[in-house]
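Support case: user asked for a sample of complex input and structure output to validate their parser. Sending the pair below.
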Amino acid sequence: MSYQQHSFEHQRITEEPFYLPTGDEITVGLAAAANQLPLLLKGPTGCGKTRFMRYLAWRLQRPLITVSCHDDLSTADLVGRYLIRGNDTVWLDGPLTTAVRIGGICYLDEIVEARKDTTVVIHPLADDRRELPLEKRGELITAPAGFMLAVSYNPGYQSVLKDLKPSTRQRFVSLSFRYPAAAQESHIVAAEAGIDKALAGRLVRLGELTRGLKESGLPEGASTRLLIQAGQLIVSGIEVRTACMVGIVESLTDDPDLLEALREMVSAVF
Amino acid sequence: MSYQQHSFEHQRITEEPFYLPTGDEITVGLAAAANQLPLLLKGPTGCGKTRFMRYLAWRLQRPLITVSCHDDLSTADLVGRYLIRGNDTVWLDGPLTTAVRIGGICYLDEIVEARKDTTVVIHPLADDRRELPLEKRGELITAPAGFMLAVSYNPGYQSVLKDLKPSTRQRFVSLSFRYPAAAQESHIVAAEAGIDKALAGRLVRLGELTRGLKESGLPEGASTRLLIQAGQLIVSGIEVRTACMVGIVESLTDDPDLLEALREMVSAVF
Amino acid sequence: MSYQQHSFEHQRITEEPFYLPTGDEITVGLAAAANQLPLLLKGPTGCGKTRFMRYLAWRLQRPLITVSCHDDLSTADLVGRYLIRGNDTVWLDGPLTTAVRIGGICYLDEIVEARKDTTVVIHPLADDRRELPLEKRGELITAPAGFMLAVSYNPGYQSVLKDLKPSTRQRFVSLSFRYPAAAQESHIVAAEAGIDKALAGRLVRLGELTRGLKESGLPEGASTRLLIQAGQLIVSGIEVRTACMVGIVESLTDDPDLLEALREMVSAVF
Amino acid sequence: MSYQQHSFEHQRITEEPFYLPTGDEITVGLAAAANQLPLLLKGPTGCGKTRFMRYLAWRLQRPLITVSCHDDLSTADLVGRYLIRGNDTVWLDGPLTTAVRIGGICYLDEIVEARKDTTVVIHPLADDRRELPLEKRGELITAPAGFMLAVSYNPGYQSVLKDLKPSTRQRFVSLSFRYPAAAQESHIVAAEAGIDKALAGRLVRLGELTRGLKESGLPEGASTRLLIQAGQLIVSGIEVRTACMVGIVESLTDDPDLLEALREMVSAVF
Amino acid sequence: MSYQQHSFEHQRITEEPFYLPTGDEITVGLAAAANQLPLLLKGPTGCGKTRFMRYLAWRLQRPLITVSCHDDLSTADLVGRYLIRGNDTVWLDGPLTTAVRIGGICYLDEIVEARKDTTVVIHPLADDRRELPLEKRGELITAPAGFMLAVSYNPGYQSVLKDLKPSTRQRFVSLSFRYPAAAQESHIVAAEAGIDKALAGRLVRLGELTRGLKESGLPEGASTRLLIQAGQLIVSGIEVRTACMVGIVESLTDDPDLLEALREMVSAVF
Amino acid sequence: MSYQQHSFEHQRITEEPFYLPTGDEITVGLAAAANQLPLLLKGPTGCGKTRFMRYLAWRLQRPLITVSCHDDLSTADLVGRYLIRGNDTVWLDGPLTTAVRIGGICYLDEIVEARKDTTVVIHPLADDRRELPLEKRGELITAPAGFMLAVSYNPGYQSVLKDLKPSTRQRFVSLSFRYPAAAQESHIVAAEAGIDKALAGRLVRLGELTRGLKESGLPEGASTRLLIQAGQLIVSGIEVRTACMVGIVESLTDDPDLLEALREMVSAVF
């Protein structure tokens, strides 16, 4: 049995990512890091949570390891497991263990999707013990000062069954994210899609209209990401309204009534 | 432990497939490929989604790897797994990993049927990171420019339980497919079944009638594929109405009332 | 790792099976085979679906491999799996793969009982691709001309949960089976049980009466198989009414009221 | 890989078991065996189904292999599985396969408790094919003439979820068992417990009274087995009413009202 | 493959355990043992069922093996399993098999908690066959005369889902246990906790009051064990009412209203 | 096969932890230890249960092993399992077994989250037997005098499905924890966050207000831990109200109405 260094390619972010703050989130994030407190990011799809984590990792000059959570993500997927190699058994650290060992940032995206055991495994890491028990190795790792835990979820479409328990939530400093203000979002869309400010502004206007449809049953309005995507299609020569339909509208819903309402919004804006 | 090149027979499509466009789908598909954006194809059974992907792969001159999704399709089925070979352990890339490595197109058919973890594993591939983490190998692959992700589903019979999450949907350029127009569908049926235009036209008329039964409880009307199949049976000498019954009607439903209504439609057309 | 030829004893049917057609099913079955189209057989228990497949296999002179589907039948059960043999790993083809390799007929009996993944694995075999991907071997087999896929189910007692999806159904030529007409069924019962026509006729009359009890809550009436069985018991010296009770009635239900109604039917016929 | 003969101790019943027939069941059982038809035994707990199978096995001079079915009984438990032995893999026949190979009787007790796949695996054995496919060995065994399949269940407390499908039921000759008539039951109880006829008669009277409580919510009345047990306790010196309470009443229910009613029955009889 | 003697430390009880009978249970238990009949013990938590089994084992001078049943207890946990040891496979007997081999008493505590398959595996041991089939070894063990099977459960909080089937219950001699009478319970509490009779009497009075709260929603009143525990805390210097609160009341419920009612009972008694 | 000493890093607490008792809990804990009785700690999130266990371990000078329970925690996770190492199989003690072997304290945090089998495995450890059966090793360990078992849970948000069974509860001495009194909590918050008494007092006032929102649907009010966290952020330069929002309010809920109510509480206090 031997130990095998984990070679997961954690991201060392070497260039400053483009990030426009919408509030105190950078100051709070840095203060949480300074106090070795974990972060919980809340907010809708594509509003900048992942982008914020990349910016924070750059500011802190720490490697960032992102894990997309899902129904079948188990403790072993996070912590590590034994693998058989020929006649030998080797231990392979999981991404969370790697982050703890190297003093990096572990970002668990959509934490509520994971199995409950994964949320419990982070408990001793998320209070002042800052410990990770590797029960299968009989080892207890204490996180170095540089380690940071961050988790995210979208409160907009959580079910009761997939809520964080109070005993989990109450271990985190919590940042609530919203879509950027119109001027700021136009700036982002123009820069990322390579279009002019006027077109970007109209796409943002369309985005805001879609976000007003929540009461009509649309689970979520268009993310900034979709607006950028529509802009890119336009640059590639797709007609504006077609670009809005395939790049934004059809990606939002299959409901005929909502599709019709969205189509009218496209016509109203363009 | 050794690495073993995956030999999955991805299709290199060498001859132009027969495909009649019904809208802007080819232009949009090429623009999505140019911008390295993933594609989501929506539409009813047998309306040409798979055929479109074959055409697009031919146009882009890229290999196409198709995966039919189902309830038990796991991340390992897509990404790969370790296998024991004698005294050695070898890694076998899954179809998604193969597509990423060779810069091909990976087409996940009926994505909503897959387990939720499979939809999450495509998230980092479907945004601007274009990365595939092979957690069990501790490896992170960045997709080459040629790689394209495409997924499909049928919004007609999705349940609430099997819907795509907004955080998944909002990563895609979305194309909505419908049955071709009558003249076009007749052209296809005649060509594929080897029958004359008049007979093909009547089969298409029958197909259209069946598609109107959705309100009466028929989950889906006859696909173009069924119309072609009936035509083939007629060419083989089966009497026209029998061919319509066994080739179309009995493949649509078991409900006695619907069967009776469909039988009358056959009598009305032939 | 080595490849091991699968030695599953597929049936080569050397003598013409006794089969009385009730409609066009033979012509349609041969036309489907000629056009390389898959077959879907619908109908109640014991009405001759399996017998028809044996006849068709004899007519086509192809080996027949039958798989009885059930809740736990997985893709690996159909397609094959790796097995460890001493220090070696060998691949064992499943019955579906064997059928594809040898160009035989694979008949999936009661397909709706199988897990959903098994219905998806037959999709690429059931359209014009006629391909079987062996994902674990990284191999894609194209079916030879002789291969035929056939599936069956009983629409009489399907639940909504166990219905075939339209995307599955619409790949098949569909034959609907019913119980044979009285004269024909008498002929079969007399021949198979070795009894005279008059007794066979009375058993068939009893069978028809039981099939009328569906509205009273009997899930299915007596199959031809049960009528033959009662006949066999009579030949073995069991008193006629006792033979009808143990050979037919008690095999249909445990419900006291239905048992009483069936007992009266026996008395009325004998 | 080697083949290892299964050494399961099937019972060869060398002495005639004590069995009092209550109807035609012996004649029917022998006729079913003569016609190679499988048997289905229905009836309440402890009414003699297992005893009948032992008698029949003795009459037919065939080994009897009994399998008590339960929720987790899988196909492999019946058919067999590969086991790793040192560096070798050996196949171990399950009890059903053993019965087929040696031409014995396989008796699946409480078949409805088993998983659905186990009921399907017996289908080809229970019709005129009389075949057992060992899919994992790629082998198909045809049952010799001596092989007989028998299954049992208790229709008294089946749920809808645990009912036999018509396609399973309609493969069997079905025998319905009831408690023996009073005189006969007294004879059995006296013989088995070693008590006099008068005491046995009173125990049987008590048993009959308990069987009348079904309408009051008692799932099942006292089996002959319980009456014998109470008799044995009396022989061992336990006071009669105490023996009835601990040997019969407390084994029937925990419901206070039913316990009170049963206690009064004991007082009424003794 | 080798056979490895199981070294489970079954208890040989060398000193007479302290046990005060509350009825005929000892005579009945000995009679059951003499007739090789299995025992079923019913009664509330901590009323002496386990203690009775220890006493009976001492009286019979047989080793006692106790298994606490739970949701995940499988047949293999009871019967045994193959384990890989280096290059060899050894069989390890489970506790039930050990008890059968050595002719001891196997006591399955809270049998209804176990998976259904475990209740079926005891069926052939619990009737006059007294056999244990080790299906994975292809072996059938007949229990020696000394073997005794005993099971227990608490009818007070069983759900319908976790009830013993009649076919299981009707194999046992059934003993119903209740809390001991007040004088007797005081005697036990005083002896075990090392307190005087007066204090013990007041604790027993408190226990009886709590047992009257069942109608008010308390699932079970205080067991004798809790009364002893409170006595022990008092001996250790904890104030009487505090000892009753932490040793009895808070261990019974979390319901505020019930806690208040229990607190008043404590005040009333002390 | 060899035995491998478990090297789990159990905590030996060498410095007196900061702990302010809120009642008799220390005396009771020491008395329970003296009588070898197990402890059950009840109370809301972050009220000091874990801290109390650390203090008690320090007072008793025993190592403390903490296990955070979750849905998938199995008996093997607690007790130990066999692992394959090269050609050998070694046994690895789980944390519970380690605690028993070394005579330490095993603290199962949030016991009700664990699978039911884990609660049953502690039964023989939690009564006067004080035994731990290692069924897979065929070994029975008797706990040394120093061993102590402690479990905790939060009665505030238990569901009926996740309640401790009476047979489990009634094995424990039970301590009920509440939030400390205001003066005491201010003392703790000031000391831990490094802020002055006045600010700490205001944070505690805010905490108390949030705990009054339970009737309005907030599952749990702010824990002392959250108040400390907000204090730390303030020390790091975050504006007071922002620190309360990200450090307390947003960690409590996502409900817009509750968030608004909490925001007003912040404004009222600061």
